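Consortium newsletter contribution from the modelling node. Members have asked for a concrete example of what our holo predictions look like. Here is one, prepared for the thiamine diphosphate complex that several groups have been discussing at recent meetings.
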Amino acid sequence: MASLMEMTYREALHKSMVEEMDKNGDVFLMGEDIGRYEGTFKVTRGLFSKYSHRRVIDTPITEAGFAGIATGAAMAGLRPIVEFMTMSFSILALDQIINHTAKVHYMTNGEVKCPIVFRGPGGAAKQLSAQHSHSMEGWYAHVPGLKVVCPATPSDVYGMLKTAVADDNPVILYENPGLYALKGMVPDDPNYSIPFGKAQILREGKDISLIGYSRMTHINLAVAELLEKDGIHAEVVDVRSLLPLDTETIYASVRKTHRAVVVYEDWRSGGFGAEIAARIGEDCFDDLDAPVGRVGGLNVPMPYSRTLELQCIPDEKDVIAAVRKLG
Amino acid sequence: MGGYTAFSVVAPESQSSTRFFTSIITLEEVPVAKQAEKKNTESPAELEQYYRDMLFIRHFEEKCNLAYRQGKAGGYMHVYIGMEALAVGWLSSIKKGYDNVITAYRDHAHALLLGTNPVAVMAEVMGRKAGTAGGKGGSMHIYDPKNGFYGGWGIVGGHIPLGAGLAFASRYRGDNKVTLNFLGDGAANQGVVYETLNMAALYDLPCIFIIENNEFAMGTRLEYHAADTELWKRAIPFGIKGERIDGMDVLQMRKDAQRIVDWVRKEGKPYLVEVMTYRFAGHGAADNDRQLYRTREEEEENLKRDPINRLERILIERNVANEEKLEAIEAEILDMVEKIYAEADASPHPDVEEVYDNIYSDMTPEKGH
Ligand SMILES: Cc1ncc(C[n+]2csc(CCOP(=O)(O)OP(=O)(O)O)c2C)c(N)n1
Ligand SMILES: [Mg+2]
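And here is the predicted structure:
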């Protein structure tokens, strides 16, 4: 058993990348201001001086261009980790990622692999308003050919980044600005990894399943704590991996509790939580004692005012209200 | 060339108003001695090979058109007829199987010249299991990475950063590969091309951006889509060497291509070349009214520049072949193409279960509707 070390989500991510770069010379980093400036969220602190401009590449502000160049490099067998300063900016690279990166393997019938990781923070930070607060994970999880993971804890981001780098397919590793400072215990083991497609039960309960991912998992944990006071035992399912999706673990929880609320930060309408809710409805109908509940972000562009912003992002009150609604 | 707007920047060396340049125009010094180019350096065997290659592409493409008309090929299909000298010139100047080549959807010729099994190309055009991508790509998405061919892309301009990425891998590994990154004149207007040119220069990528200027982006003439129709000048802001050359004379194309490939291999820097050519066929197989955007007279005028006829004249002048020999070569090629077609056509369609294969290397998505 590897010893555990306490560290932040940011540090875990950093440690994971360093270990992967040390293991394999084909792994390199690319992104805006990740080198000399050490990253907007400081995830790449110290890496430019450690690995030099050869392996930590500052790019111009050209998301489509560098997403494409990294994709080409991956097609040639390198293993790039591309940072988007925020996932909102990856919108400029959607053509590259969806029309190109995600299609390489299929269009070549498996002749060309594309081992690339796109990572960065998505979702609301604090008052970054309408153009900097997008949740993009549902957009990506819509696309066959991509894998999408949304780790919620330091140990998960540590293990999932490693799995992502080792994967021969394009992976979107979705972070959340609200998670970087979160502390947790992380195994001190360069070979640690978390397989994709495995949800985890972070808290057991028998009355209702609270299903979420990324930062919303922590809302769900807090809600479970609050519900406990009223004698309601909530089970918290941390989905972790959207594509592939571990329906088995989700369904097993629902079959045990007979009630489910799916929580996601993305716009409620058409966000990935809607997909999870639909699957539960399709496959667990007979196990349910109530319709599947859903809590998503308000369907509005993110406003700047902190008062309005907080109104948009799902919080404990919203989840509790959804739980109560199920009766 | 006409079509300059009042705002366009005209580089000093490029005031010429002739449409077709056979000479080189660079802002900086002309890279390599031009004297040698005046001599006839090609051996008879080489000359014959260029002829065979061009003629093979021509007839292969005619056969693809036939496949389309017969309903054996579908979707969008774009042939290379009229442009053969361009691909032959470039692809005979690289180390095949070592260097990288990437292009858009007008991609049959590039694959064939790199040594891809022509039956697999034809089978892909017909969507068969024996195709280069098992019938999943089609005409626009031919791949053959073992021969250095990375496609075969359908989003106009979208593959340009990928090509630069292949060159990035060469720079990263320190190998000596050159990447040929082909694009159309229409593609030259896409924003991502400029993002890529900037990064190619910034990172010193050994990548040659080759604009196949066939004067049209579908039905839109160069003059109607480019504010400054001298596309080679788009290299200038990035400090990349750029020039415009003739792509209808295979021998000149071959020399220019070799000179540029050698330069890029040696210097490890990008290069942008605008190659003047003309497509004789419609934009794609579905383009059946070319008169909407060009006249018959214009087409006839351009047919006089047919690169195959031009080389035929040279072969005869230089006593490499006489009429009978040329006819024999053509008969041989026609026969070959016939067999390719028949073999591809006899091959099976993919099995429906294959639809899920190779979306990922190690998993399949949720199955079913
Ligand atoms: C992004 C995008 N926009 C539009 C199209 C449709 N389209 C396909 S080919 C083409 C013309 C491109 O012309 P050019 O780049 O000159 O290449 P050529 O066909 O002449 O070889 C257009 C508009 C496309 N495939 N992709
Ligand atoms: Mg064109």
